[in-house]
UniProtKB/TrEMBL annotation:
The keyword Glycosyltransferase does not apply. Keywords: Cytoplasm, Magnesium, Metal-binding, Phosphoprotein. This is Phosphoglucomutase-1-like. It comes from Betta splendens. Belongs to the phosphohexose mutase family. CDD domains: PGM1. It comes from the Eukaryota.
Length: 564
């Protein structure tokens, strides 16, 4: 057996023009990574080159993914390139699998310089699906825009990458592995770690596990149904909810991580989590929850499939935040929501006199506020909720937050939410997704729409639909000034705000791998009529949104791909 030091090579390469990270990293179809020579290598080298060599030398980096197709191949390359680029220690999830919240936790726990997350989140997997690479910084959260811009600029001029091609890591065996490299004084170390334990230990310090165990397996226990959608969350659900908190094993479904997520779309909403929705209808279960591929997102259902919108979920957790022991100890410094998320949270913040922040879409904006001690709880309408225990949205944390509320309030999910509406009024909210739209058509529509709403004559314009009249109060392209570092983020969505507080928002999503996704968000507040059908209540505003944008005509679409 050859025990000589492993050779580090410098390999010539040529740049690609399309490696600009989006809202959640670089996402492309798998075949792009497979068919374009050194496409993966270029982007990984651009990440390492964006870090000062002095910071890189001997540093710790965390790597893991959601288990989708190409995950193992990518990890092998990342390990080889990390060694060649001076990283001293790599912490990798067992079998290369680790949830995004767990990676954030591990980065913070071991004071790693960064983390590389292999996920395309809620996008489809498999050989014909999507693959993604996300870069998180030392705070455990998504890289800020100046960092991703630097990575992109490097990727456009890259000429070579460093790699140790003979280095092979056994991801199936827990423990430490050590490798001697040419011209390196210290060996390169790889720790293959239990993907669940560090994260589970963090949650034990956030929630009252004894109270949750009583709720889930005590004498008067409730029944829950959890759908991991064949993503990364299966092992976490089984270990934490079933083995530790006492849920029956058959409470958890689709818990084996699969490279193609069982052929399903791992997006926890009413359209794609149909298995869960169907299983909740007969009233056998008191709470249902689904998770996306990498464990960031969650959907909450009550008995008989009673749907809790992510906006309402965030507001309810905020109103009951001291049901969670962690916040009893730390206190609450602030709430935040992304701009398209409904204003339900705003009403709780006002009543509790807690500071509220409205940010662009993207968890990185929340991270800055958390690091400055200004934010405790935040969320997005896109099924993401989280606290300041880590710097990522956290699906399982949200489910445990809801279970903590049920344990304290001794009420059903539906009763908790209906009581919330009676107390605060209700923000009716919906989102229409038009997926894989022609990029040029989508951009032209948004440009024309911005010109229209920016015209002074648009302000105070009135729209009549059936017996309702809506008058424009304000219309703009949302921009955000970060109160911590004063950086300005422009062009974050087009807003039309009416005199009654209703909002229509248009935005191009940055999480797809091909084409464009046009999103229309509709948010309308009602103080009295809180138990009506959402789509009926929002139909007039939907009509106005489609009329103003001419979306169906401009994109050739007859209707949305998904309604949430």
């Amino acid at each position: 057996m050859d025990n000589s030091p492993l050779q580090v090579l410098t390999v010539p390469t040529a740049p690609y023009p399309d490696q600009r990270p989006g809202t959640s990293g670089l996402r492309k179809k798998v075949f792009v990574f497979q068919s374009r020579r050194n496409y993966l290598h270029n982007f990984i080298q651009s990440i390492f080159s964006s870090i000062d060599l002095r910071d890189r030398q001997g540093s710790t980096v965390v790597v893991g993914g959601d288990g989708r197709f190409f995950n193992r191949t990518a990890i092998e390359v990342i390990v080889q390139m990390a060694a060649a680029n001076g990283v001293g220690r790599l912490i990798v999830g067992h079998h290369g699998i680790m949830s995004t919240p767990a990676i954030s936790c591990v980065i913070r726990k071991y004071k790693a310089i960064c983390g590389i997350i292999l996920t395309a989140s809620h996008n489809p997997g498999g050989a014909n699906g999507d693959f993604g690479i996300k870069f998180n910084t030392a705070n455990g959260g998504p890289a800020q825009e100046d960092v991703t811009n630097r990575i992109f600029q490097i990727s456009r001029t890259i000429e070579e990458f460093a790699i140790c091609p003979r280095l092979r890591v056994d991801l199936t065996t827990l423990g430490k592995q050590s490798f001697d490299l040419e011209n390196k004084f210290k060996p390169f170390k790889v720790d293959v770690v239990d993907s669940v334990e560090s994260y589970a230990n963090l949650l034990r310090n956030v929630f009252d596990f004894a109270a949750l165990k009583e709720l889930l397996s005590g004498q008067n226990h409730i029944r829950i149904r959890l759908d991991a959608m064949h993503g990364v969350m299966g092992p976490y659900v089984r270990r934490i909810l079933c083995e530790e908190l006492g849920c029956p094993a058959n409470s958890a479904i689709n818990c084996v991580p699969l490279e193609d997520f069982g052929g399903q779309h791992p997006d926890p909403n009413l359209t794609y989590a149909a298995d869960l929705v169907d299983s909740m209808r007969d009233g056998e279960y008191d709470l249902g929850a689904a998770f996306d591929a990498d464990g960031e997102r969650n959907m909450i259902l009550g008995k008989h499939g009673f749907f809790v919108t992510p906006s309402d979920s965030l507001a309810v957790i905020a109103d009951n935040i001291f049901c969670i022991p962690y916040f009893q100890h730390t206190g609450v410094t602030g709430f935040a929501r992304s701009m398209p998320t409904s204003a339900a949270l705003d009403r709780v913040a006002k009543a509790t006199k807690i500071e509220l922040y409205e940010t662009p879409t993207g968890w990185k904006y929340f991270g800055n506020l958390m690091d400055a001690g200004r934010l405790s709880l935040c969320g997005e309408e896109s099924f993401g909720t989280g606290g300041d225990h880590i710097r990522e949205k956290d699906g399982l944390w949200a489910v445990l937050a809801w279970l903590s509320i049920l344990a304290t309030r001794k009420q059903s999910v539906e009763d908790v939410l209906r009581g919330h509406w009676l107390k605060y009024g209700r923000n009716y909210f919906t989102r229409y997704d038009y997926e894989n739209v022609d990029i040029d058509a989508a951009c032209e529509m948004m440009e024309d729409l911005e010109i229209m709403i920016s015209d002074k004559s648009f302000a105070k314009q009135r729209f009549a639909v059936e017996d309702k009249i809506y008058q424009v109060e304000k219309a703009d392209s949302f921009e955000y000034t970060d109160p911590v570092d004063l950086t300005i983020s422009r062009n974050q969505g087009l807003r039309i705000i009416f005199s009654d507080g209703s909002r229509v928002i248009f935005r191009l999503s940055g999480t797809g791998s091909e084409g464009a996704t046009v999103r229309i968000y509709i948010d309308s507040y009602e103080r009295e009529h809180v138990f009506e059908d959402t789509q009926v209540m929002l139909a007039p505003l939907a009509t106005i949104a489609l009329k103003i944008s001419q979306l169906h005509h401009r994109t050739g679409r007859k209707g949305p791909s998904v309604i949430t």
